[in-house]
Amino acid sequence: MANDTLRDALRHLEGFNSGQHGWTNLGSNGDVKLISQNVTGANLPMFLGQLTASSACSVADLTAVILSDACRRFWDPSYLASHVLCTCGDSRSAVLCTEQKGSPISAEALWTNVCTARHVRKEQGERITYAATSVPADFRKQHRETLSTWGVDKKELITKIWAMDVLRTNDQVQLSFLLLSEASSFHLPNFMLKQVLASWLGVCVNSVWRMSTSGMTPKGSICLAPVTDEDTETIMLGSRQLTVSGPVIIQLASDNGSG
Question: 259 in a domain, yes or no?
Answer without folding.
Answer: no
